[in-house]
Amino acid sequence: MNRYLKLVHMEVDRFKYILAGLMSLTLICQFGGVIWWTKSAVSNRESGAWMNGGSMGYILNSSTSGNLSFTHVLFNTQFIFMIPILMSIGVIAIYVFLIWYRDWLGRNTFIYRLLTLPTARRHIYFAKLTAILIFIFGLVSFQLALLPVEKLIFNLIVPSDMRDPSNISNIIYANPALEMLIPWQFDSFLVYYVIGIIAVLVIFAAILIERSYGRLGILYAILYLGISVFLLLFPMAGLGLDNVNGYLYPNEIFAIELVMCVVVMTVSVWIGCRLISKKITV
Amino acid sequence: MIKVVDIHKRYRGRSVLNGASFTVEKGQITCLIGINGAGKSTVLKAIMGLTPLKSGSILIDGQPIDKNLYEQVAFVPDHLTMPPGMKLSEGLQFMQDFYQSWNANRAEELMTFFSLDRTERIGNLSKGTAAKFNLVLGLSQDTAYVLMDEPFSGIDMFSRGLIAEVFSSHLIEDRGVLLTTHEIGEVEHLIDRALLMKDGAICRDFQCEQIRSEEGKSIVDVMREVYQG
């Protein structure tokens, strides 16, 4: 347990600069977007340009009173808000692969050392998994923590008589990327993140299959990915959740989907742990 | 004693290990000799559990390799296996964090002996310096056995002298050492026992002193018989 935590610490430490970079990018893009848009909207209003149709886009999204709300800001800065979010998702997605391959590739193959540590090898597997989850939830919580600060910046720029109130759910709904990242319904939150975690587990298993079986491993890994995707999609796509004339009731299909998720998750973790303990080769 | 019995391994359709069997005794320096591609490194990796075997068994003091035995057997691969972004001091800390058998005083002693700079990054080390640091990591563990893969490869003459000095010092005494090399000349005077590998199996196993006094042959002479005869 102790060595597992040390491994987690080490994995997080190795990614800290990239993580800090992603957080800084998020901060700069979003603060910049909020300040720039709010300032120009306020000056637009003060100069009276908005009344004359000087900024059509803005008028369409603004309340009838002409007041500004933080929700408007987010609605109008969707693109610049999305850049760091999509970039973070992309980097994490690539790092799901690199967290393993970086130990094999290059001049210093750290995997030799990792595999000969006096600790159960599954700890290496779980440490890498935990690290990925820490990165994901770290970035999401950072994003959540930024929103009130951005709202504060908005409040500082816009005089109170020009402000409309906005609540957190409207703020999140104003940007599709945020809505996906932080779904307002708890069940969608669960579904998105569980699917994400299953995807990470399946990819981990595929990577370890590839690392264990040499050239043939590439084929096995692709096969494993294919079978997993099929198993996960089949109950939804094949049996049809919204098919009224289907043989099964929707809740039965939902139960099958749930079982498939559990099966794919369990098998992936089992394969991962087993391969890293018995079959992996440097 | 490390006991390797009839190990077989195939890699990319080729037989790399083909029934190799031998033992490594404590208090002896055993050298695994063979031409390039003879399977020397694969044997060391197999002992460390870094590559699975098709058949055969490897026992260390009567037990198959598992996590606890990594405290008993140290491995010095043919290249440094620490992340390039780490500083040497962080590398030493990493070892101390994970290995109970880590001997910080000995690490300190070896760092001074090889004149290594703790603030240097591992990625910036030259090949020879990296090899020295690799030895520091392997020899600073209080283990019963040390496996070394080509410890002299790519190292300049003076550093070879330093490493050879380590071999005849208290750092090695009482331990079972298994090393591989294809340049036997450098280590001939250091080793107690030689294992000659050919086609994935051990074809000669002899005590160097004995063959020297009884048959008047050097290791190189025996190698010529085996590989050229």
TrEMBL record, chain A:
Keywords associated with the record: Membrane, Transmembrane, Transmembrane helix
Membrane-spanning segments: 15-37, 79-102, 123-146, 190-209, 221-241, 253-276
Superkingdom assignment: Bacteria
Record's protein name: Uncharacterized protein
TrEMBL record, chain B:
UniProt keyword list: ATP-binding, Nucleotide-binding, Transport
GO molecular function terms attached to this record: ATP binding; ATP hydrolysis activity
Keyword field contains Nucleotide-binding: yes
Family matches, as SUPFAM superfamilies: P-loop containing nucleoside triphosphate hydrolases (SSF52540)
CDD domains recorded: ABC_DR_subfamily_A (cd03230)
All copies of domain ABC transporter, residue ranges: 2-224
Any matching Pfam family: ABC_tran
Superkingdom assignment: Bacteria
Hydrolase listed as a keyword: no
PANTHER family in the record: ABC TRANSPORTER ATP-BINDING PROTEIN ALBC-RELATED (PTHR42939:SF1)
Protein name in the entry: Multidrug ABC transporter ATP-binding protein
Source species: Paenibacillus antarcticus
